[in-house]
Amino acid sequence: MRLHTLFSVLFGCYGLVSGRVFSRNFQLHEARDAAPSGFVLSGPADSDATIRLRIALVQNNVDGLVDALYSVSDPTSESYGQHLSRDEVASFVAPASESTSAVQAWLNENGLNADVLSPGGDWLGVDVPSSTANDLLSANFSVFTHEQTGLQTIRTLAYSIPAELTAHIDFVHPTTTFPSGTGHAPVFVSSTSTSTSPVQRSDNTSAVCGSGNMPVTPWCLQYIYNIPSDPANSTSNGIAVTAYGGAIPQESDLQRFLTEYRPDMSNSTTFTFQSVNGGNSTSNNSQLNVEANLDVQYAIGLATGVPVTFLSVGGEFDDALLDTANYLLSLESPPPVVATSYGDNENAISQKLAYNLCNAYAQLGARGVSVIFASGDGGVSGNKNSECTTFVPTFPSGCPYVTSVGATTLLPNEQAAAFSSGGFSNYWPQPSYQSAAVSAFLTQLGGNSSGLYNASGRAFPDVAAYGTLYDIYNSRAALEVSGTSAAVPTVASIVALLNDRLLTAGRATLGWLNPWLYGAASGAFASVTAGNNLACSGGTTGFYATSGWDPITGLGTPDFDKLLTAAGL
Ligand SMILES: *[C@@H]1O[C@H](CO)[C@@H](O)[C@H](O)[C@H]1NC(C)=O
Ligand SMILES: *[C@@H]1O[C@H](CO)[C@@H](O)[C@H](O)[C@H]1NC(C)=O
Ligand SMILES: *[C@@H]1O[C@H](CO)[C@@H](O)[C@H](O)[C@H]1NC(C)=O
Ligand SMILES: *[C@@H]1O[C@H](CO)[C@@H](O)[C@H](O)[C@H]1NC(C)=O
Ligand SMILES: *[C@@H]1O[C@H](CO)[C@@H](O)[C@H](O)[C@H]1NC(C)=O
Ligand SMILES: *[C@@H]1O[C@H](CO)[C@@H](O)[C@H](O)[C@H]1NC(C)=O
Ligand SMILES: *[C@@H]1O[C@H](CO)[C@@H](O)[C@H](O)[C@H]1NC(C)=O
Ligand SMILES: *[C@@H]1O[C@H](CO)[C@@H](O)[C@H](O)[C@H]1NC(C)=O
């Protein structure tokens, strides 16, 4: 089902007035000097090329949403755990009725009808030929080509909106935010394993996992983080694993994985597939599927008995992130954990779009959903393969309403993984829930890396988990993969198993985690105190892991039993 059909309405009541000429006074709304580095202008867009314009209307009460989010997510609040319904959340972001009618009238006078894309009615979508988009927005939509990858995209360097709509329209997308040229999946493949013999239980972790070429398996992770293997029992629980770009988990690989590494589980345990906005349902692209196989194999292999839904989301990444959030917000009961191993550099995404997406994560948090993202695999340079002169934070990890996960390596004494991204957002200021933890780090940091990072920004990651040499099956062969994307399903599984215990006890799910993580749960994480991450060019150093919170491994690695206690179980 295409997402926009869920909320489709036609604005039929503002018909064109025949013969009347509408002249609007345009005002420049967003502009950039040039395309981002890597992209070159290839020429004007074909006038018939269809562009799906998404119009973000001004949301009526974002401050109220954030207040509500804190009051249901802060364990010291009286309304902790009293998560909001779909309609309650929608009412905070619904635009003023004047905004909706003014924008509808503008579209109608141009002969256009919009779809409503979000439960709050704050996103409208309309498909238009590029020539119409140029007229509507006084823009110059052109084809830009990413030289390295050949990726082509239609964007404009500037656009305007009618002056009388500036109080009603937040921004229009896709316009000046370009897609990432180099992709969004941070997973990377370390090596292929020739040995496929299952790892045996042992009390000697260095003998069974993570050392040398020995792969990490669900059993190792259960062992090092005290993750239970008995099946969860709550039926209202769940994890949604999201994927972009057409990556699809393969059932045959999952079955082989479970047979090999979870012989105590039925090897026919599987996931529910959900396509969002035309996301592909099959893929023969073995390389692309690595991420999906990793995420699903470890979510199912660690969150024993928790229903897992795989969301294959179509479209360019930024649009797909919006569609993912709006799809989940449209559900009566969204899955309590959403795990995403994809991200982008913060500076690749316009501030307006980044804020809007972050508000969508705040909405999910208010609904009781833990939104979990990988911190990125390029050390302080952001996503892997990016160049930098100052440290580059990643998105959405810089959004204060998501939980960002970094990675560790080496057992039994875990160290920060060099690739694990972390740092300080340039878009969001430091939220108070982390100020004590982050101040303590900044005091230790002293003058190190001075001028390269934004000390006043939201700091990430929040937590970490082991992230190297995960053994998976891909295209019927064993493979070892590393990345913060490996740590994500591990953390997501732990949260889902905690939720199972809470639901069974008649309690609410954990929802937005961060106030709890930095509060009652901070002692449930083992601080990682060794290792440093990569800086802007090969071989240099970024941040160092330290006692307490640090910007490579956050609060540290989890202990399930201690988290149970911290959750009052
Ligand atoms: C619009 O962009 C095209 C390239 O796509 C360029 O040739 C043309 O001069 C631009 N038009 C204006 C009015 O800037
Ligand atoms: C644990 O295993 C490693 C690697 O096989 C071995 O070198 C070490 O002696 C073992 N330690 C113990 C206490 O058995
Ligand atoms: C779920 O129920 C089974 C059967 O009663 C039990 O063995 C198992 O421990 C339960 N799981 C949890 C997490 O309590
Ligand atoms: C989706 O599938 C179609 C054909 O099945 C393929 O051409 C296309 O490249 C796939 N899209 C992605 C993003 O992989
Ligand atoms: C799944 O388990 C059954 C036995 O329960 C076994 O016969 C089958 O080969 C297993 N499947 C795979 C793909 O290993
Ligand atoms: C994928 O492979 C299967 C058989 O291996 C084939 O039937 C199917 O058409 C292929 N799909 C695509 C999109 O290439
Ligand atoms: C640093 O972060 C703050 C938000 O905390 C932001 O206002 C400021 O613009 C950022 N500085 C830079 C140089 O981006
Ligand atoms: C500061 O940098 C030095 C290396 O120049 C390093 O040894 C030390 O651990 C760093 N301290 C912190 C807190 O990052």
From TrEMBL:
InterPro entries (UniProt xref): Peptidase_S8/S53_dom, Peptidase_S8/S53_dom_sf, S53_propep, Sedolisin_dom, Tripeptidyl-peptidase_I
A GO cellular-component term linked to this record: extracellular region
Catalytic residue list: E291, D295, S485
Secretion signal span: 1-19
Top-level taxon of origin: Eukaryota
Enzyme class: hydrolase
Cellular localisation: Secreted, Extracellular space
Keyword set, alphabetical order: Calcium, Hydrolase, Metal-binding, Protease, Serine protease, Signal, Zymogen
Protein's recorded name: tripeptidyl-peptidase II
Species the sequence originates in: Postia placenta MAD-698-R-SB12
